[in-house]
Amino acid sequence: MAAEETKISAADEDDAKPTAEAVVKTEEEKSSQDASSSSSLPPMTPSASAGEGSKTESSTTTFGRIVMIVQIVIALVVGAILGAYLTAYILETEYKSIVSALQSDHHTSLLASKNDYIKCQNNLTHEVTTAEVEMAKLVLHADQNERTFQQRAVEYVKETNAAYRHANEGLTKAQLRYQKEIMEHKATKNTVKEMESKLSKEVENHESTQLQLSQVDRRISAIRNTLAESQKELRAEQAAHNASISRERELGESLDEMEEELDRRDLERAECDDHHREMLQCRQSLREALEGNAGTAAAAAGIVEDENVLSVALANEKQASENLAAKLALALKEKEELEHTIGVLREEGVGHLMEMERISRELEEDRELWQMKAKNIMNKISFRNRKEVLERYGPGPYHVKFTLEFHTAPTTETILLALAPLDMMPHTIHTFLQIIEKNIYIGGTFILMREHILVGGPVDSHDLNSNRALEERMVNEGYFPEGALLYTEYTPEYPHVENTLGFNVHGGPIFYFNLKDNTEPHGARYSEEEGENEGDPCFAKIVEGVEVIQRMKDMPRAEGGGLQDPVYIVKAEVVTMAEE
């Protein structure tokens, strides 16, 4: 805008300059015309010059004044024009300086505003990024909760749909058979309503059963803690009881020794009494002999001295016997106190044992009750899984084919599996077929090679992004980290022999091929450390592709036990023998 105004003012100046010059030229032309007109007048005759001299002089004076006025007017006009031009030039110069100053200030303010805007934009971007990260975390957590809720809702919806399908089948049959009988149709509707109410009650009972199971688990843990504390107290009491028994035994031995010592002292005391009596008799005899014979006085004095020594020894022996009798009395008293303490401890121990037996009986009753409820739930799940497999895949037998991609030629290999009979493990077969149908294994690899097993599944140890995607897929389907199976199915009729397929301890979807007979380590077993172990589910055997397993066994291995070159599962499908 300022540049345009500057251009306009310059153009005005250029227009003003020729205008002033034109005015000057116009005035000069007029003066020259007047002069020429005066010079072109005819010369006056002598007769007329005298009469007209005064007129000519006055007209010349008037003309000169007019010319002077015109020149003054022209000068004033030219001065006004020059002053206006100069004023316009000064104003234009001032305007340009003001405009340039305003432009620089405006440019500076624009730069400052731009920098502030960039800073605000960066801060806003950072805040938006932070908010998006937090929102992503919240959305992920909400999605997980929603997926869990949806899984439970899907299970309940499946049960409800199954019941509705069953009811609708009954209704359809009833409508086909009894179209004219409206009363029976109404009765069928009532039956459907009753079934719906029963189903809702069953769902409520299942939820209450889950709640009661959690309460019983908490109660069992509390009782186990109480039992552990009681066992510690019993062990301490048992140790005290054993110490008391050993103390009692030692006191008994000491008492026996003291009694033997008292008996011995009594015998010695009796002997001393006999000697004392004999000495008294000897003294009497000596006195009688002294009275009769003075020569034996020295011998009598020696005998008397021996008698005094024996009296002192007898007194010491008597004092020792009394001390032993006092010790014996104390020992007897201590023995009685120990016997009383042992009796009290025995009574308390019997009370604790009775309480523990009562708690054990209650725990056993609760365990049997919940085992029965759990068994009923597992039977219902197995029944529904068996029904879904029959509706989806027919009566069987069922086969699954894995297509593998190797790093070297031949790059494509296949393994054909024959699944176990459906009646043996319907829940495991149903879950495995669902995993196959949902393409959970596509993109997975074989992650571990041991002498007895080859482990594979939806895991990629060679590509972290692929592994993250596979893990997310398992989480979305509810297969990770708790596993795919709701409970373990193992039967000794389908053991872990060579070239069979089983789920890992978590119940899939990780699987392993048995490279040798693993019935003992992976089947049902019992140990003091682990207790009773139901065994890993074994549910398929290799029909075709044993050489593919041998090829992977011969491949070089990495440090962690996996294969050095990845073998990818590019396809997993359920096939029929006709297709195969």
Overview of the molecule:
The structure is a single chain. The protein is built from 8 helices and 10 strands. The protein has helices spanning 2-39, 46-177, 182-292, 297-393, 426-437, 464-477, 519-522, 546-553; strands at residues 399-405, 412-419, 445-449, 453-457, 500-503, 511-514, 525-527, 531-533, 538-544, 568-575. The strands form 2 sheets. It has an 8-stranded antiparallel sheet with strand order 3-4-6-5-9-2-1-10. A two-stranded antiparallel ribbon has the order 7-8. Helix 2 (46-177) crosses helix 3. The protein is elongated. The two termini are 84 Å apart. Residues 1-25 and 34-50 have low confidence and may be disordered.
Topology, element by element:
Elements lengths: L1 H38 L6 H132 L4 H111 L4 H97 L5 E7 L6 E8 L6 H12 L7 E5 L3 E5 L6 H14 L22 E4 L7 E4 L4 H4 L2 E3 L3 E3 L4 E7 L1 H8 L14 E8 L5
Antiparallel strand pairs: 1-2, 1-10, 2-9, 3-4, 4-6, 5-6, 5-9, 7-8
Helix pairs in contact: 1-2, 2-3, 3-4, 4-5
State the helicity in percent bands. Answer: over 70%
Strand content: 5-15%
Straight-line distance between termini? 84 Å
Structural class: alpha+beta
Can you tag this structure with a few keywords?
alpha+beta, 8-stranded antiparallel sheet, 580 residues, single chain, elongated
Outline:
It is built from 8 helices and 10 strands. It has 580 residues and is α+β, with helices and mostly antiparallel strands.
